[in-house]
Backbone:
């Protein structure tokens, strides 16, 4: 007997009523029967009380019950009696509305073993729109569930570990967006760049790490133990050791199923190594102090000898001029005697100059390398700390967080800043100066690192702003131990870095020296 029946599909948006007469097909009933019978999904057809009227082969395979054991029995034979009532209510509720339902049930096989059944039930509706049977299709989803649960558990465990480690961790996608940041990273970003989004904080890190993060993301260049120091001005700077690695994962989207689509991620781990580096820094500062004292001595000797050369050069030039005159005129016996005496004096003078030139200690030989100006200034402040304290000078240190490293001679630059600081300290040591404040600001502008060093001393009269950079010029009276070679040395070092140094003509509350150094200087 052929009837027009259909099972309600889950696709509610489908306009096709789904009522297909078996007569309308080119296939006979036997084909339909065999198709259902051999379908690898457990299929059962029940009456309206869920008593099983038909079960296919897969049903036997999944449940362990033979056909004869289940025909006439209720589907509840499969129930483990632990599926929540609400689930069954939902199932029956949908069937009562002549709609299909899909969900998970905990079933028990004949051998009492449990499995998770992913069940789809649908009403079988006749041509009078009456539900005459129910269709059930289910498969064992235990493994899928186990896998899902495993993934979920692993995710939870990894999250717990990542959230509890003291290292700051951040995961970035290939466009630099933060995919995951642990609480330590968020705390670090908040501490160091409170008002900036995480992505901008990463830019600050990248700049302070000479582009390591960028090359990790763009060139997949991993790094380990990259040092990073961030100076916020007050207190002492912070040091971090960073580790960056690439993580490549297969894309989960459908288009990545047959063709492998790889998503690139970058993992950054940052460890605070400040206590260790602070101890190392103390040792480093002590050796720096010794080194700078030695360099000061050499510089002092160079200045003294240069001074002597400068002073001797005048008389030698005079004698040379007199010799020239006498040589042009020289006829009398008396002239000849004076000429020969003067020639001797000139030779002796020249010899003395040559000797002095030779005795000039060689200037410091140093190759250029990346220099962190903030760190350098911080070192000089530390080296000068005793002097600053002794003179009651307060230091306002405003380092820029975004200061690129520049290519320069570290030791020479350090000596240069020390000279400018010492000048400022010296100027503020005057008893008339009541408010003693040294302000240092760094910033970067158009491939330049700019350093402003302002003191609250008496300042330098504007007509002397250029002269102070000339050798042997001093605003102080002679005999005050001032050689007038400090600022020329500053000028020379800055020029060696293709930079400029000048006294700010607009600064009225003391003296402000502005040093501008290009990030990459020639030479
Ligand atoms: P029951 O007393 O049978 O029913 C529990 C609740 O279900 C009731 O409180 C009531 O709200 C609702 N309910 C039960 N029968 C009807 C009904 N005829 N009309 C409206 N509401 C009703 N259950 C499984 O555990 N595993 C299966 O694999 C499974 N497959 C099914 C396949 C089909 C096609 C259908 C129609 C049902 C299937 N069921 C299955 C549901 C099953 O028939 C039982 O309802 C369920 O197992 C709960 O049985 P019970 O003896 O614990 O409680």
Residues:
């Amino acid at each position: 007997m052929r009837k027009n029946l259909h099972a309600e599909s889950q696709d509610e948006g489908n306009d096709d009523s789904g009522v297909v007469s078996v007569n309308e097909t080119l296939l006979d009933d036997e084909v339909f029967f065999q198709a259902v019978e051999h379908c690898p999904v457990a299929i059962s057809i029940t009456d309206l009380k869920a008593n099983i009227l038909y079960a296919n082969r897969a049903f036997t395979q999944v449940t362990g019950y033979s056909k004869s054991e289940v025909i006439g029995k209720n589907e509840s034979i499969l129930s483990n009696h632990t599926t929540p009532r609400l689930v069954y209510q939902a199932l029956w509720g949908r069937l009562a509305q002549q709609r299909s339902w899909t969900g998970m049930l905990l079933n028990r096989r004949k051998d009492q073993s449990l499995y998770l059944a992913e069940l789809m039930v649908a009403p079988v509706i006749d041509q009078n729109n009456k539900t005459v049977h129910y269709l059930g299709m289910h498969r064992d989803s235990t493994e899928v569930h186990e896998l899902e649960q495993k993934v979920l558990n692993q995710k939870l465990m990894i999250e717990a570990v990542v959230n509890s480690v003291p290292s700051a961790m951040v995961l970035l996608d290939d466009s630099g967006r933060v995919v995951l940041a642990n609480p330590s990273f968020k705390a670090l970003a908040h501490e160091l760049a409170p008002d900036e989004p995480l992505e901008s904080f990463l830019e600050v890190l990248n700049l302070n790490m000479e582009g390591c993060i960028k090359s990790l993301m763009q060139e997949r260049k991993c790094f380990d133990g990259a040092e990073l120091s961030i100076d916020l001005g007050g207190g002492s700077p912070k040091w971090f050791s960073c580790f960056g690695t690439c993580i490549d994962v297969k894309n989960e989207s459908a288009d990545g199923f047959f063709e492998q689509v790889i998503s690139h991620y970058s993992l950054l781990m940052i460890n605070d190594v400040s206590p260790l580096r602070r101890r190392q820094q103390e040792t480093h500062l002590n050796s720096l102090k010794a080194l700078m004292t030695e360099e000061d001595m050499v510089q002092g000797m160079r200045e003294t000898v240069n001074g002597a050369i400068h002073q001797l050069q005048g008389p030698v030039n005079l004698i040379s001029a007199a010799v020239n005159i006498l040589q042009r005129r020289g006829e009398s016996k008396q002239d000849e005697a004076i000429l020969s005496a003067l020639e001797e004096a000139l030779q002796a003078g020249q010899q003395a100059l040559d000797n002095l030139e030779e005795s000039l200690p060689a200037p410091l030989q140093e190759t250029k390398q990346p220099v962190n100006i903030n760190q350098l200034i911080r070192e000089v402040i530390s080296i000068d700390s005793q002097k600053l304290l002794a003179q009651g000078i307060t230091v306002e240190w405003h380092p820029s967080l975004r200061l690129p490293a520049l290519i320069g001679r570290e030791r020479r630059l350090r000596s240069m800043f020390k000279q400018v600081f010492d000048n400022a300290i010296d100027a503020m040591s005057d008893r008339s100066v009541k408010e003693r404040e040294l302000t240092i600001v760094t910033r970067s502008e158009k491939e330049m690192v700019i350093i402003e060093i302002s003191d609250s001393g008496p300042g330098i009269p504007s007509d002397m702003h250029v002269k102070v950079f000339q050798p042997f010029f001093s605003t102080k009276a002679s005999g005050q131990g001032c050689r007038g070679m400090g600022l020329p040395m500053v000028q020379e070092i800055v020029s060696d870095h293709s930079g400029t140094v000048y006294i700010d003509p607009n600064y009225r509350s003391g003296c402000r020296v502005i040093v501008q150094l290009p990030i990459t200087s020639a030479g």
